[in-house]
Amino acid sequence: MLDARMKLWPATFILSDFGRYPPNIANVEKDVIAPYKHLIPSYLNDNSTFDSRPTLLYFQGAIYRKDGGLARQELFYLLKNEKDVHFSFGSIQKDGIKKATEGMRASKFCLNIAGDTPSSNRLFDAISSHCVPVIISDAIELPYEDVIDYSEFCIFVRTIDAIKENFLINFIRDITKEEWTRMWNKLKEIEHFFEFHFPSKENDAVQMIWQAVARKVPAIRLKLNRHERFSRSPPSIDKGLKSIPSLRNFW
């Protein structure tokens, strides 16, 4: 796979993130970020309110991770004793998806913390559950961010701040019911952008990905055209200018 990446790097890749790619192989300038397919079922007919979701902050997943995921362990020790926070180990095995579905739908905010890579399906599970995502992943790249303002329905916290004692919990507690309700409503407005259908539907994830690819075309065409500027010119034999040439008959 690495050999293929090295040979195909000029192509436009469709990726979930750039976590395992060097920047000369994959980057936001030439490539497209696609959403994960969420594992939790879509929350249809969601009439929940701020007060009907008893859990303030929810996380269930692998706690001990390497590299960028070390913040998970730090946050576990900071939050594990908060009475209205659910922070525990979990997986998709057995009834893991069922428990996560129930937990996210009962929570106001859902933590999305970097693991081995900057992103995961957890963000899109939160969106489909209308649980306001709290993103703690400094290197994360998000789908269609050139046309979607994620700050309207997500909370972003820098890792260096999140692992300070009491910072995150106080920050989340200070978010008002009105602010949460506005973000909850926005989640319901935009969730269809992250749904995969076959056949595809208008502005679903499939169409949004292809629209993102199309938006890359002008920049690609510009680079190709610039590359062709001197394609018909005779090869230069100069070793480089020794001085600036005089401008004869300039006036």
Provide a descriptive summary of the structure in words.
With 251 residues, the chain is α/β, with parallel strands linked by helices. It has a domain at 55-194: 3-Layer(aba) Sandwich (Rossmann fold), CATH 3.40.50.2000. It is 33% helix and 12% strand. It has helices at residues 2-8, 70-79, 96-105, 122-129, 159-162, 167-173, 177-190, 205-227, and strands at 14-15, 32-33, 55-61, 85-89, 107-113, 132-136, 155-156. The strands form 2 sheets. It has a 5-stranded parallel β-sheet with strand order 4-3-5-6-7, sandwiched between helices. It has a two-stranded parallel sheet with strand order 1-2. Helix 4 links the parallel strand 5 and strand 6 (132-136). Mean pLDDT is 90; it is low at 244-251.
Q: Quick recap of the structure?
A:
With 251 residues, the protein is α/β, with parallel strands linked by helices. The chain has helices spanning 2-8, 70-79, 96-105, 122-129, 159-162, 167-173, 177-190, 205-227, and strands at residues 14-15, 32-33, 55-61, 85-89, 107-113, 132-136, 155-156.
